[in-house]
Design brief:
Elements (H helix, E strand, L loop, with lengths): L8 H8 L1 E2 L5 E2 L22 H10 L5 E5 L12 H5 L10 E4 L4 E3 L1 H10 L3 E6 L3 H10 L4 E2 L6 E2 L3
Parallel strand pairs: 4-6
Antiparallel strand pairs: 1-2, 3-6, 4-5, 7-8
Length: about 160
């Protein structure tokens, strides 16, 4: 399986931004060092969250429920503005997944909608830093990713 986190930092960062003539990567400051396109991120269906929480607990990684100001969290991918603007209010109450270093693991669009609406974010925090939390999510048997626009189950 392709592991984006095994790429050097400068390779990962260029996926999220553009390198200027001075060699500095410019992207608004939010994505370094973790920009990962959505197709490469782990996805877990809401119906599987109960099992996911037990899985996380069995790996001694939390989880912990939190309500946070969205300004305390960090994005790792760009969002689709149309999707954010048209998000129904009931979707904003669905918890997002975050890492211990406060990066959004799943729920970037919901997070950004909460930023725009000045609402607190309901979150489930995995007690691991970003890359370790992503690895743990990929170990969960019901995790999938879209990769190349396809809805593929990840096989470990």
């Amino acid at each position: 399986m392709y592991k984006w986190w095994e790429n050097p930092l400068d390779v990962r960062a260029t996926k999220g931004g553009e390198r200027g003539v001075d060699g500095i990567i410019r992207h608004g400051g939010e994505f370094l060092p973790f920009y990962i396109p959505r197709p490469e991120m782990p996805q877990v269906d809401e119906k599987d969250y109960s099992e996911l929480l037990k899985f996380i607990q069995s790996h001694r990684a939390g989880p912990e429920s939190k309500v946070l100001s969205p300004q305390k969290l960090h994005a790792h991918q760009r969002v689709d503005w149309g999707r954010v603007r048209n998000m129904p209010p009931n979707v904003l109450r669905k918890p997002i997944l975050i890492s211990s270093d406060l990066y959004v693991l799943d729920g970037n669009h919901r997070w950004h909608a909460c930023v725009l609406a000045h609402l607190d974010v309901h979150a489930i925090q995995i007690e691991r830093e970003f890359e370790s939390a992503i690895s743990l999510l990929f170990e969960f048997p019901k995790t999938y990713c879209y990769g190349d626009g396809l809805h593929n189950k990840i096989s470990n």
